[in-house]
Amino acid sequence: MKIVLTGGGTGGHFYPLIAIAENLKKVALSEKIIDLDLFYFGSKIFDADSLFDNNISFVEVPAGRFTIAEFPKAIIGIFTALWQLYKVYPDLVIGKGGFDSLPTLVAAFILRIPVLIHESDSIPGKVNQLAGKFAKRVAVSFEEAGLYFKSEKIAWTGQPIRKEIILPAKEGFFEYFKLNPGLPTILVLGGSQGADAINEIILEALPRLVEKYQIIHQVGPKNLEEIKIRIETILSKSADKERYLPIGSLNPLGLKMAAGVAKLVISRAGSMIFEIAVWGLPSIIIPLPSAHADHQRKNAFNYARAGACIVVDETNLSDDLLIGEIEGIFTNPIKMDDLKAGAAKFARRDAGGVIAREALAIATRHEK
Fold first, then answer.
1. What is the DSSP letter of 164?
2. Mind listing the pLDDT tens digit for each residue in 174-232?
3. Contact, 90 vs 110, CB < 8 A?
4. Residue 308 contacts by C-beta under 8 Å, 6 or more apart in sequence?
5. What separation in angstroms does the CA of 288 have from each of 23, 42, 65, 135, 291?
6. Which domains does the chain have, with CATH numbers?
7. Which of 23, 101, 235, 352 is buried most deeply by CB count within 10 Å?
């Protein structure tokens, strides 16, 4: 049995597919499917270690947006995907959305290879809306996303999360980050590439934040050196500068440790919401205002309706407002507990397993 995975070139697309792959192997083993081969079709390797660790073969397929400038590249991508898919001829293609997945999904449709897609956002992206018209099954993280597809195709699964980060660390995190056990820790996440607006507001608030809190701040690899230079000035008069820990990106162990030590998370409203939820942590969510179809704002308010977070609009964001929201959570134990309970209620831990079982059922029917 052969299954192809494909998605956009960001962590929000890539890592849920890795979580699905982990569950595919687990379910295949339990159902005695011993010949499962997995492939990842994409324009570039996002995380080679994750592909290697899960024995997933990478196949390069160029991708381009359907704009005048990139149209030739998009067409080349479709023909490349047709040839590569024909050579592999999988029993199923699993798509995560993003223009990087479009050539492979179109090729699968042409070759009559079954497709299953997963949508992480409240409003599906254009590629998934297109693929949903011919997909056998559509898995969604938010129930609202199901309104954009035929109801008989929908499975409300939640978000697949990698097994290595689904549970926060229970010990060792203070030593790992060299933090003080006597101070509360705030975890700031801006996605795999960082979030410039969040980075800026944290730096503005930093002199006051480190008076009471420790901050683990994922700033994005491209921003790390600049921020290290800037904090030398920002915290030059602070005796508590060691309480701020900027990190380019958190690897799985670092993320697991950060989830274990954090008492509060500040984040964008992408797929990270689902990881925060399974960790059962209270959060302040700052949606990306430029996201397609304003989907991050809708994600954030859907999450807030579960009682799991405080939403702060970026247009209203200031250091005073952010500090006020942080203080409002830490000084109100009832509010803190309510946010934890909301996160736990929202979490769906077996999303990867549900999708894997459905995927293998479709692939098995095609194989026969």
1. T
2. 999 999 999 999 999 976 666 889 999 999 999 999 999 999 999 989 999 999 999 99
3. no
4. 276, 277, 282, 283, 339, 342, 343, 345, 346
5. 30, 25, 21, 29, 6
6. 2-160+349-367 (3.40.50.2000), 173-346 (3.40.50.2000)
7. 101
